[in-house]
Every structure is written in C-alpha cells, then in structure tokens.
C-alpha cells in the first residue's frame, strides 16, 4: 500500500486531530495546519497529494485558499477536498467546481468520512493517469485542459 501525504487545514484543532487520527489509521502520513497562512506554508513545504479543508471563517475563504493552492505548480495536481455542512453547497461544488476534487457533507462518522476521502482520491488518481496517457498519445480534449 502506498503511503499518501495528507494535509488537514482546519481552525478547529480537535476536529483536525480526530480526522488526522483516522487518516493515519488508514496509512496516510498526516500534517495539520490551523490557519490559512499555516496551511499554505505547510502545503508548499510538504507537497501533499491530499489536502482536506474544513472549518475556516467563511466559504469564500475556503475558495480563496483553494485558488492559492492551485496556483502553486507543485500543488496544482493535489487532490483537494472541502468538508461542508450545507447539502446545496456540496452539490454545487460537485457539479461546477474546477478548483476542488470533492466536497463531503459533514458531520458524518469518521470511518465513513475516510472512506469518502479515499474514493475521491482514487477518482483523482485515475483522472491523472488518463490525462497522462492522453498526453503521451497526443490526444487531448478541451475537457482535459479544463480540469
């Protein structure tokens, strides 16, 4: 099993610790950051394959953080997941967002949350493999370039 590097960005220390604990149980190497500034710094230093963003002050801050992370070439292909509390926001992000790879509705049980995270990460890895194969064969669509 490959060990994935994960970063949890959350202003709630207890929630970040709980999520980190359950991710570690599943084999992830976990770093945590408790502010936007620390989250950006940690992501730049650790270059995680998975970034989970939870409680920040506003949803706008989450999107601004994601855009900053995506602007960094070392993080552009990272799997970014937002934890959200509103089902409408979750559905909107799942359908329209080109910035995040997944949105998970919380609260949920830790094991179910980790399972959803793993499913999104697997989907992201498959997309990257497909994109890589298309580049090798010279077959790129507009959809490939938009992701």
Tell me the layout of helices and strands.
Blueprint lengths: L4 E5 L3 H13 L3 E5 L2 H11 L3 E4 L5 H13 L7 E6 L2 H10 L5 E4 L4 H28 L4 H5 L1
Parallel strand pairs: 1-2, 1-3, 3-4, 4-5
Helix pairs in contact: 2-3
Architecture overview:
This protein is an alpha/beta fold and 147 residues long. The chain contains six helices and five strands; from the N terminus they run βαβαβαβαβαα. Strands 2-1-3-4-5 form a five-stranded parallel beta sheet, with helices on both faces. Helix 1 links the parallel strand 1 and strand 2. The longest helix is centred in the C-terminal third of the chain and has 28 residues. The model has no long low-confidence stretch (mean pLDDT 86).
Question: What is this structure, in a nutshell?
Answer:
The protein is about 55% helix and about 15% strand. With about 150 residues, the protein is an alpha/beta fold. The radius of gyration is 15 Å and the shape is globular.
Note the run of SSEs as H and E: EHEHEHEHEHH
* The CATH superfamily title: Response regulator
Tell me the major beta sheet.
5 strands, parallel
Strand order of the largest sheet: 2-1-3-4-5
- Average pLDDT, all residues: 86
Output the CATH class name.
Alpha Beta
Report the portion of residues in β strands: 15-25%
What distinguishing features does this structure have?
6 helices; 16% strand; Rossmann fold; alpha/beta; 147 residues; single chain
């Amino acid at each position: 099993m490959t060990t994935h590097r994960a970063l949890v960005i959350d202003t709630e220390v207890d929630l970040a610790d709980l999520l980190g604990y359950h991710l570690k149980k599943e084999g992830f190497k976990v770093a945590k950051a408790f502010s936007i500034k620390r989250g950006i710094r940690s992501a730049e230093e650790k270059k995680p394959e998975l970034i989970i963003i939870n409680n920040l002050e506003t949803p706008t801050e989450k999107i601004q953080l994601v855009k900053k992370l995506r602007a960094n070439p070392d993080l552009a292909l990272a799997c970014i997941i937002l934890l959200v509390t509103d089902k409408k926001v979750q559905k909107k992000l799942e359908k329209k967002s080109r910035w995040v790879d997944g949105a998970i509705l919380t609260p949920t049980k830790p094991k179910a949350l980790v399972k959803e995270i793993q499913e999104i990460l697997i989907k992201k890895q498959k997309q990257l493999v497909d994109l890589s194969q298309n580049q090798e064969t010279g077959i790129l669509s507009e959809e490939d370039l938009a992701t």
